[in-house]
Write a structure and sequence with these properties.
The chain has 325 residues and is an alpha+beta fold. It contains eleven helices and ten strands. It has a five-stranded antiparallel sheet, with helices on both faces. Strands 9-8-10 form a three-stranded antiparallel sheet, with helices on one face. The protein has a two-stranded antiparallel sheet with strand order 1-2. It is elongated and about 85 Å long. It starts with a helix and ends with a helix. The mean pLDDT is 76.
Length: 325
């Protein structure tokens, strides 16, 4: 919108001083001609802005003119510029809005705090994606986000981790949660809280029916219940393995979802240590395909299970070879 663009120009000029018209045009993704028209509009509205042509020219505000927002401390100013975590805003289609908001905040900061806030944006980077978590299916949050903000029910086609075909659900969404780089839809199904990974949603359709949330329950409440349910799930088995370095990438692609932390890799040696969580001891048989490229370190029952599986496969091979002879 033009009003947003005019405010962005004003705040950029407050922050930067004299700015060439072509640079403003590039930042705001409009033509230079549009920038000059906007400058005329600002001037007509009483803003003391002027343009100087020539090699060192540009657009500038009259010295001493500014808008100001006071009351922010130095630490509060720094904290605002740690908000720009990569990935989350892009997934929600808010990257450009975030950039515009931070420009406005920067221009409105008290002058003594401005350099420190700008330094934070250059020196602190927040990347919420889990290390070596394996590739994820691209996620389109558009429909889910629209349902959340318009308070409408959703019809999902959703594939669970252990299923080959998607199932159909009608749900009542509370909101979206980004955890370690993975987006989740928190919703009720038949009055009970459920968690849906956004990258497993095969299709989503907004229904005409209004959402039916439980009275008094907010997104944070539903998420806390579901988070505890996942983290405190009984019956899991923690397994420690060593993986040959040259097979680590393949191992992470296949077993990334079972990892409970970052692989311990000091950059030296032939082996890398990883820790996984399986629902039952029999699940360690999944590692059999790596042969001698993966070694189970602990617990003893996991080692025994994998050795028994290997012996079984060897026995089948030997019997088959004997019959062929």
């Amino acid at each position: 919108m033009k009003s947003d663009r005019l405010l962005s120009i004003l705040l950029l000029l407050q922050t930067r001083g004299r700015v060439p018209a072509h640079e403003l045009a590039g930042r705001l993704e409009v033509s230079v001609r549009t920038i000059y028209r906007d400058v005329e509009s600002l001037s007509a509205a009483g803003v003391p802005v002027y343009a100087e042509r020539g090699r060192y020219g540009g657009i500038e505000l009259l010295a001493g003119f500014r808008t100001d927002v006071t009351g922010l401390t130095a630490d509060e100013s720094r904290a605002l510029f740690v908000l720009a975590a990569q990935g989350a805003h892009a997934a929600l289609g808010l990257d450009s809005a975030l950039g515009s908001a931070l420009r406005k905040v920067m221009a409105a900061l008290p002058a003594p705090h401005r350099p420190a806030a700008e330094e934070v944006s250059r020196r602190i980077l927040v990347d919420a994606t889990r290390w070596k978590s394996g590739p994820h299916r691209p996620v389109d949050l558009g429909v889910l986000q629209e349902a959340v903000f318009t308070d409408r029910r959703l019809r999902l086609r959703y594939r669970h981790g252990g299923d080959t075909e998607p199932r159909t659900y009608t749900v009542d969404p509370y909101g979206l949660v980004a955890k370690a780089g993975v987006w989740y839809l928190v919703a009720d199904r038949r009055g009970a809280p459920r968690l849906f990974r956004a990258d497993r949603v095969r299709s989503a359709r907004i229904l005409d029916e209004p959402v039916r949330r439980r009275p008094g329950v907010e997104l944070a409440d539903a998420w806390e219940v579901l988070r505890r349910r996942v983290e405190e799930r009984p019956g899991g088995l923690d397994v420690t393995v060593r993986v040959r370095r040259e097979r680590l990438d393949m191992f992470l692609r296949l077993h990334g979802p079972s990892l409970t932390g970052h692989p311990e890799d000091d950059g030296e040696g032939e082996w890398v240590t990883a820790r996984l969580s399986y629902p039952a001891v029999g699940a360690v048989r999944q590692l059999l395909g790596f042969s001698d490229q993966v070694e189970v370190v602990a617990p003893p029952e996991a080692r025994a299970e994998l050795l028994a599986a290997a012996a079984s496969v060897t026995g089948l091979y030997e019997r088959g070879a004997g019959q062929g002879a």
